Amino acid sequence: MADLQQDDPQSSSTAAVGELDRIPRTAVPARAQPAGPPAPAGPSAPEGPPAPEGEGSLARARAFLAAHPVADGCNHLGRALAQRQWHDLELGESTLDTDLPRLRAGGVGAQFWSLSVPAECAGDRAVSATLEQVDLVKTVVAAYPERLRLALTAGDMADARNCGRIASLLGPVSGQALGDSLGTLRAYHALGVRSVLFAGTRWSGGEGEGLSSFGHEVVREMNRLGVLIDLTGAPDRAVHAVLSVTRSPVLFSHSGARALTDAPENVSDDVLRALAPDRGVCMVGFAPEQTVRRVADHLDHVREVAGRECVGLSGMYGRDVADVPHADELRDVSCYPRLVAELLDRGWDGTDVALLTWGNVARVVRDAEFTSRASRHRAAP
Fold first, then answer.
1. Which residues form a coiled coil (predicted)?
2. For 49-79, what is each residue's pLDDT tens digit?
3. Which domains are seen in the chain, by residue range?
C-alpha cells in the first residue's frame, strides 16, 4: 500500500439543524442526557475541557474529543463483518481494529460505513453486493441502539452525538454499483445512502479522464437528492469537471496530500486549492504503515494549501488484524487522541481541531441538505 490511501433559502428547519451542530458534546454515558447550553460558533468555539493538572497533551486531547468528537470518513467494518458468522461489537473484537469500546475510547462521534465493492465487481453483482452491505450495516446499527444510531442528516448527526450515540452514515457506495442508472441512485438514497464514489466509472474518468454527459446528470441528481460526491481516486480532470457543475461541496473520503506521497488516491495541490471556494473537504486517511507524525504532516499540508475548513479525518479502520495492520501508534480506532495530541503539540488551536474532527464534515452534510432543498423544483432526469 502506498504511503497514504488512495471523512433554497433556509427555512426554520434548516436553522435548527445549524444550531444543533453548534452544541458541544459532553462526556455522557450511553443513555440520553440533557445537552448543555449551545457553544458560540466560529473562532470563539471552546477548546474543550482542560486536562487534569499535571497531565500532558494526550489527556488534553481526550478531554477535547469529549466535546468535539471525530467524524470518521471511512470505516470498512461492514465488509469485515460480512465475512463472519458471529460477532459481538459490545464485548469487543480482538481480531478487528474496530468495536464499540474502542470507538468510545477513541472519541468517535460519527462514522461513514463504507459500502464499496471490489473494482472487479460490476453490473448486477455490484448492485447486489452493495445492497447486502446496506442490509448488514443497518442490521448492526439496529442491534446496538444504546451505542449506534443511523444518521441521514446533519441534525441526526448532532442528535446522536448529544445522546451519546455514534452517528452512522451509509456510504460511500462504489460508483460502478449504480449500474449507470439514476434510478438505482435514487433507490440507494431511499435506503439511506448519503455518499457515492466517482472513481473507476466510465462517466467520471474511465474514458478520456473527463465527465461524460451522464456524469453531469449524476452530479445534478446527487445535488437534488442531497447525496455527497466522493472524489477519492478520481482523475484531476474529472475532479475539476465535477467542481464546475456541482452546487454542493465535495468530499475526498480517504485521501492525502500528493505533494507528500505520490499515490493515485491522494490529492494534488491544484485540486486542494480548488476545494477552497466551496469548502469541500479532504479527509486524510491513515494507511497501515503511517505513523502519527506522518499523518499529521499530511493534515498540516492540506490545511495550509486548502484552508482549515477543508480538512477532515478518515481512519480507514474496520479491517481484520490479520491483514496489513496499522502502525502501533494508530493500531485501532481508540488511537485518535494520539493524533489530536500531536496536532495540539504542533500548535493547532482549538477551533482548527474542532473543525477537523467534527465541524467540517457536519457542515458539508448540512450544505448538501440545503442544496437539495433549493433544487427540489428541478424535475428528476
1. none
2. 454 443 589 999 999 999 999 999 999 999 8
3. 57-374 (3.20.20.140)
